[in-house]
Amino acid sequence: MAPALLDVANWSTWAVCAVMKVPQVAAVLAARSARGLSVGSLVLELAGFLVFLKYQIYYGYPLQTYLEYPILIAQDVILFLFILHFSGNMKQALLYTVIFVGGWYMLTLQKWIIDLAMNLCTLISAASKFAQLRCLWQTKDSGQASALTWSMSAYTCATRILTTLMTTNDLIVLIRFIIMLILNIWVTATILNYRKMKKTD
Q1: Distance CA 66, CA 54 (A)
Q2: What is the chain's alpha carbon radius of gyration, rounded to the nearest angstrom?
Q3: How many domains does the chain have?
Q4: Where is it chiefly localized (predicted)?
Q5: Is residue 201 situated within a structural domain?
Q6: Residue 156 and residue 13 in contact, taking contact as beta carbons nearer than 8 Å
Q7: Do residues 196 and 141 touch, judged by C-beta distance below 8 A?
Q8: Which of 27, 74, 97, 163 is the 20 to 30 A CA-CA neighbour of 80?
Q9: What is the rounded CA–CA span in Å between residue 113 and residue 50?
Q10: Local confidence pLDDT in tens for the 201 residues of the chain
Q11: In the 8-state DSSP scheme, what is residue 64?
């Protein structure tokens, strides 16, 4: 039963992650606008994803426990480029690329660096969710923010809580997914709330 449950959790996580950012990218492209989306949130999310992926690789965790992260990073990069394009800031793309690539290599120069980065990873990822929440609260408008994308993020956090308990049982990773689950649900609820308010106006 347990191996079958683990397989279902892993496969469903990969399937959801393969299309997670598609609704968000589609919304931005359709509107040709990044209104309601926080660049800071996306930068922090990307940083959190890169640290988490590097940590899992460094400690040799099973591939199936983090296979979705390269997919998510690729989708975030595409979304990020569209946001920069529609906000007229494409010149910043090169600077961000240098920072992220340099950071990726620096993470494993020493064991203490990757361990410290992973401990900060939860704070970084939580900050990305709060940056998006702040953007929503300030504008009181969900804009092009996709509730479907955020709800899929919540689902993958829930499945990763399960797979972490069944495989590595890494407490740092587990705490990260629990916090991310709560925050993803919060962002989803906020987007839906502002969308509902807009319809009733």
Answers
A1: 10
A2: 17
A3: 1
A4: membrane
A5: no
A6: yes
A7: no
A8: 163
A9: 14
A10: 578 888 898 899 999 999 999 999 999 999 888 888 888 899 999 999 999 999 999 999 888 888 899 999 999 999 999 999 988 888 889 899 999 999 999 998 899 999 999 889 889 889 999 999 999 999 888 888 899 999 999 999 999 999 999 988 889 889 999 999 999 999 999 999 998 887 776
A11: G
